[in-house]
Amino acid sequence: MSKPNYTGIYHMVSQENFEEYLAALDVNYALRKVVCILKPSKHIEHNLNSGEMKIKTVTTFRNFDMDFTLGQEFTEDLGPVDGRKCQTTVNWDGDKLVCEQRGEKEGRGWTHWLEGNLLHLEMRVQDVTAKQVFKKAE
After folding, report:
1. Which of 15, 98, 116, 122 could form a disulfide bond with 93, CB atoms 3.0-4.6 angstroms apart?
2. Start-end of H helices in 5-109
3. Distance between CA atoms of 82 and 104, rounded to whole angstroms?
4. Count of alpha carbons within 13 Å of 21, Cβ hemisphere only?
5. Count of Cβ atoms closer than 10 Å to residue 77 Cβ
6. Pairing label, strands 74-79, 64-69
7. Listing from the earlier edge strand, what are the strands of the sheet with 118-125?
8. One digit per residue, pLDDT tens: the chain, 138 residues?
9. CATH class of 8-132
10. Residue 121 CA from chain centroid, whole number
11. What beta strand segments (E) does 33-137 contain?
């Protein structure tokens, strides 16, 4: 089975349970309210041959960059302001990208998968799951 190429620009079309997810991450109330009204886009560069990926989440509030190689653990900067970091590994699970994060919160990670022109993102921490759906730009 060939792996899908995630390269593209995707704009958020929906989200579920995101405030609860942020609360489980101990994000303060005011910041949760701000973050939940943002409509991020994801700019993804994916090299299928090398496994290198760049995921840039762009908002009017703040941008987040994540550069990694599939299957290789790296230190992820979770909170540039307060210095939170964790050890992160992203691997294939079939045609889905699955991220496991260690060191910040138990059971934290995410899964990305494509269905047509939709990019799905399921985020989890402990027993809380949130979902966002993005549509690929034409």
Report:
1. 98
2. 18-24, 29-37
3. 12
4. 19
5. 13
6. unpaired
7. 64-69, 52-58, 41-46, 8-16, 128-136, 118-125, 108-115, 96-102, 84-93, 74-79
8. 578 999 999 999 999 999 999 999 888 898 889 888 889 999 999 999 999 999 999 988 888 889 999 999 998 877 654 567 889 999 999 999 999 998 777 888 999 999 999 999 999 998 999 999 999 998
9. mainly beta
10. 6
11. 41-46, 52-58, 64-69, 74-79, 84-93, 96-102, 108-115, 118-125, 128-136
Which residues sit opposite 118 in a β-bridge?
Answer: 115, 135
Burial group, residue 60, by CB count within 10 angstroms (0-12, 13-18, 19+): exposed
Compute φ and ψ for 22, nearest 5 degrees.
-65, -40
Which residue ranges make up each domain of the chain? 8-132
Quick one: tokens of 86? 């964790």
Which of 75, 73, 93 has the alpha carbon at shortest distance from 84? 75
